[in-house]
């Protein structure tokens, strides 16, 4: 179950429309099932994945937008995760501008913690409408001291690598303790 010990809680943060639900559904393996039957109400996807020959259990939470204008829900979201994916769309500079604010909010909520945070530039398939270059994304990630990954939920590009990266970040920190 979702409350199990050792399950890695992955929280998806980011503006509306950047692809949080698309990425969560790819993780859950639901993206090509019948969405009208399943409904759009799914908010947590639990799955075990094999990374470097070892199994890991993840729950991916797609709840961030529901916390809009509800500060205790937002704070709860910022407290409960083991890993955070801060997602923006490479075609939307406004969503990119939010990244720094989100990261500061997160680090303020969890001071003195070495939280694994991955900055995710999604929609890399939309080459013609790209507004944020790979270099600019990477630059901000370096400045904010987090990992950077570009994905395309539409093409499933780098999506498996993204969630494998989540597990590796957690293992790296556990092995350091
Ligand atoms: P959310 O509001 O952050 O959950 O974003 P959604 O997952 O609902 O995606 C918003 C829109 O962007 C939808 O129409 C998706 O189909 C589309 N979308 C999401 N990811 C990608 C992507 O990687 N490439 C393209 N071309 N469209 C995407």
UniProtKB/TrEMBL annotation:
Organism, as annotated: Geotrypetes seraphini
Residues of the full protein shown: 78 to 254 of 312
Annotated protein name in UniProt: GTP-binding protein
Signal peptide feature range: none
Keywords for this protein: Calmodulin-binding, Cell membrane, GTP-binding, Membrane, Nucleotide-binding, Phosphoprotein
Predominant cellular place of this UniProt entry's protein: membrane
GO molecular function: calcium channel regulator activity; calmodulin binding; GTP binding; GTPase activity
One GO CC term on file: plasma membrane
Transmembrane regions listed in the UniProt entry: none
Family stated for the protein in its record: Belongs to the small GTPase superfamily. RGK family.
Subunit structure: Interacts with Calmodulin.
Function: Binds GTP saturably and exhibits a low intrinsic rate of GTP hydrolysis.
Record localization: Cell membrane
């Amino acid at each position: 179950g979702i409350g199990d010990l050792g399950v890695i809680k992955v929280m998806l943060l980011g503006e509306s429309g950047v692809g949080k639900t698309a990425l969560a559904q790819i993780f859950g393996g639901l993206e090509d099932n019948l969405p009208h039957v399943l409904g759009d109400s799914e908010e947590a996807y639990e799955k075990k994945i094999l990374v470097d020959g070892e199994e890991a259990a993840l729950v991916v939470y797609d709840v961030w937008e529901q916390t809009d204008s509800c500060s205790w829900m937002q704070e709860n979201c910022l407290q409960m995760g083991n890993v955070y994916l801060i997602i923006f769309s490479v075609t939307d500079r406004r969503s990119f501008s939010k990244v720094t604010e989100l990261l500061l909010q997160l680090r303020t909520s969890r001071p003195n913690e070495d939280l694994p945070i991955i900055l995710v530039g999604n929609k890399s398939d939309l080459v013609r409408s790209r507004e944020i270059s790979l270099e600019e994304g990477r630059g901000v990630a370096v400045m904010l001291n987090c990992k950077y990954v570009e994905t395309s939920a539409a093409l499933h590009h780098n999506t498996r690598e993204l969630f494998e990266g989540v597990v590796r970040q957690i293992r790296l920190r556990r092995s350091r303790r």
